[in-house]
DNA sequence: CCTCAAGTTGAGAGGCCCCTCAAGTTAGCT
DNA sequence: AGCTAACTTGAGGGGCCTCTCAACTTGAGG
């Protein structure tokens, strides 16, 4: 790849990250091109689809989440690790409307990457006895969807409100709170499908 | 108003209710007109803005919610009343993607109407000791936003999944689950503003 | 310095949606 | 039956966004 192409790619990614962060994943692409000081044609040269751009813009996050997960597993108290992990992910969401949108389409079940770690975090916390035994990995989607919705609604007027939402959700996941759940968890296939359509 | 105008209004409302229910609040208006067998111009004659149409289409819901609230207050067990009310509202959301969208912009704090009843339901449940004492009316927005997000994501592939989400949320609202919350509740002004921008 | 593959450009076609308004139609009164 | 205010119509202008492609420019190897 020619070096000017590399540079343009980098500028596009930076502009995209900025605009995604400020306004969510559906910023017009021509605005990103303009912000990058590059023509719309170049944007399409470097990133043939919006998804390609989004993926490239947030490529680093997978590693970040993995770090969070490892850090969580390194904590002594399994429940606190669980809480720390979810809090960490939600902090990423709250800090970036683009990632907030993306997380809602990606949550939890992305078995491919470091998310296998999430299963460990969850199961360890269950073995520790503080996380209720009847929740599944797929239930984590509810947390992410919920917090994502709260972040979207409140980021302007009450940033940080999601922390209260998350705290309430976590209390609902604590073993001491457990009442029998009305229906079985979603299958991973269902969850995957649900994530797909936003 | 001329009787053909009345008839067209009615047809439009029916078409709108159907399409809103199936596809959410942002169906193209011309599609609604087409489904009603009427021109787009007529739609604009009857309903000058999208909001006017939405409001008319869901005018009955306020009464339904009030009924739910009264029914909840008539229950012996305050907590069960609280649960029944939230479940009822969420059932409305799950049954109609349009109302699901609308609820997310309307939740809880709409002091004007029968929602004053919601405050009663909540406070009664707190006095009863089963609803944690540190939650506020504004916290109900988290439940509605969360369930709305889950309904949107899962209605096709796992309808009913929201019941599990709601059950977990409710467990988090139960007094036995209460751990200190990290931040104070949103003010009603904040909540109102948050509801405004989606 | 020359060359050409690699890269850039931006106007424009196309899609979707909103909203208007001048021309045509009709209900319902007299 | 005639009249008029009320109503309907739908083509069309406008905005916004996506995506393409023929013409142009440039980096870098020889």
From TrEMBL, chains A, B:
Keyword vocabulary terms for this entry: DNA-binding, Transcription, Transcription regulation
DNA-binding feature ranges: 28-47
Pfam family, one: TetR_N
Record domain HTH tetR-type: where: 6-65
GO function term, MF aspect, one: transcription cis-regulatory region binding
Entry annotated with the keyword DNA-binding: yes
Record carries keyword Transcription regulation: yes
PANTHER family the record matches: HTH-TYPE TRANSCRIPTIONAL REGULATOR BETI (PTHR30055:SF234), HTH-TYPE TRANSCRIPTIONAL REGULATOR RUTR (PTHR30055)
Protein name in the entry: Regulatory protein, tetR family
Organism: Nonomuraea jiangxiensis
Organism ancestry: Bacteria, Bacillati, Actinomycetota, Actinomycetes, Streptosporangiales
């Amino acid at each position: 790849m020619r070096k000017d192409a590399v540079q343009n790619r980098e500028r596009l990614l930076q502009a995209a990250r900025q605009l995604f962060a400020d306004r969510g994943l559906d910023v017009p692409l021509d605005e990103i091109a303009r912000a990058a000081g590059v023509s719309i044609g170049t944007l399409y040269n470097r990133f043939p689809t919006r998804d390609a751009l989004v993926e490239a813009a947030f490529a680093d996050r997978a590693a970040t989440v993995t770090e969070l997960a490892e850090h969580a597993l390194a904590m002594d108290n399994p429940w606190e690790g669980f809480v720390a992990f979810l809090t960490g992910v939600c902090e990423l969401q709250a800090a970036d409307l683009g990632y907030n949108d993306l997380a809602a389409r990606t949550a939890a079940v992305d078995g491919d990457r470091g998310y296998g770690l999430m299963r460990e975090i969850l199961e360890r916390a269950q073995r520790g006895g503080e996380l209720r035994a009847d929740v599944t990995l797929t239930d984590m989607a509810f947390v992410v969807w919920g917090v994502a919705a709260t972040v979207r609604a409140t980021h302007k007027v009450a940033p940080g409100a999601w922390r209260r939402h998350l705290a309430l959700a976590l209390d609902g996941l604590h073993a001491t709170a457990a009442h029998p759940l009305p229906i079985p968890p979603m299958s991973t296939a269902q969850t995957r499908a649900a994530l797909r359509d936003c």
